[in-house]
Amino acid sequence: MSYTAFRTAGRKIVAIGRNFADHAKELNNAVPTEPFFFLKPTTAYIDSGGIVEIPKGVIVHHEVELGVVIGREARDISRKDALRYVGGYALSIDMTARNLQDQAKGKGLPWSAAKGFDTFNPVGPFMYKTAIADPHNIRLWLKVNQQMKQDGNTADMI
């Protein structure tokens, strides 16, 4: 697979929930001590500049994230070896149907469906890992209609 083709050739999207402590607090959620994972379908990908399709009746929330593109097959990797498996990065927007997520959480059900709509994961162009000196210290921000919605740093991730 060409790294630049990860949107069409990638087999899965593994996302980390509540990875920014401030965001967890903002949503009145407990700040996790360990990250937890959820999956999104690859149909959620849409290229930068594409049109996000918001289903009727959905209240959307968005979070800017550093997308990590795994460069080779990996399992049971130690923390110290993890970066060896990274092929590169892409800016990613994790979209959530917040009202559907709240309903699912209230019933004790998985909330992957609230994050898995087609086009609910806009991504920017692929960047080889050599383009980013320190993935643990990158400022990420998101503006919608010229208004700042999120401003953080990967150093603040859990």
UniProtKB/TrEMBL annotation:
Residues 12-158 form the Fumarylacetoacetase-like C-terminal domain. One of its GO terms (molecular function) is acetylpyruvate hydrolase activity. It holds the Pfam family FAA_hydrolase. The keyword Transcription regulation does not apply. The keyword Metal-binding applies. GO terms for cellular component: mitochondrion. Keywords: Metal-binding. Gene3D superfamilies: Fumarylacetoacetase-like, C-terminal domain (3.90.850.10). Belongs to the FAH family. This is Fumarylacetoacetase-like C-terminal domain-containing protein. It comes from Tilletia controversa.
